[in-house]
Amino acid sequence: MSNYVILNSSAHAKTQVITDRGADYGDNVKYALTFPFEFRNIQSCYPIFFSKDGDTGQFYPIALFGLANNENLFLSDSGWDATYIPMMIERHPFLIGYQAAPGEGDNDTKPVVSIDIDNPRLSETEGEPLFIEDGKPSPYLEKAIARLEAIHSGHEHNKGFIQALLDNDLLEPFTLEIKLNDGSNNQLLGFYTINEDKLLELKGDVLEGLNRQGYLQAIYMTMASYARIRTLIDKKNLQLT
To answer: Which domain, by its residues, includes 32?
Structure first.
């Protein structure tokens, strides 16, 4: 369970963050939320699909790391075996929270940096310090805050991107049958992908609009990322040997 509190230089003056990668630090996850602005890097390493929240019905893009629950095929004894790690993975143990700010408008709240004090990455003896002399943010914390700001903007961009896909009927569910080298049959299901037939049917003015909004490139990068399914299968087969 996460236990987020507002980050401050007094309470967390000695706090350090371990930046190693591994299952012990919560990295053994099947997928993570991603954003169109990082699709260029994501598609070079991972397949991009879309997941649907069972409670809200909302869709969101994800980077896929494994074929089973709690499986990350990119983890090895040396860490995370990929040239790019998604921002929603890199953000831990931080999160943008909201604090009451009477008189500032926007429902009288303001975004603040929160930290999960129960996260296994936190230490007082090793890792990257959060604060330096005079309580100033360390270079590591400044980079983490910039990442959180990008993620905050990414959530808003995702809303427009998903709505454009839905407006043009470009999302469809799919099931992928995978046979591994040990003879076992596996299914990848529960995700959505781009309906390429519907994409081909779009008129020029619609495509122009998607391009103007920066969504068309993201769509094609999503489709290009499907080649990375082979990477997952190869990694899974290597584990079996």
So the answer is: 16-87+137-235
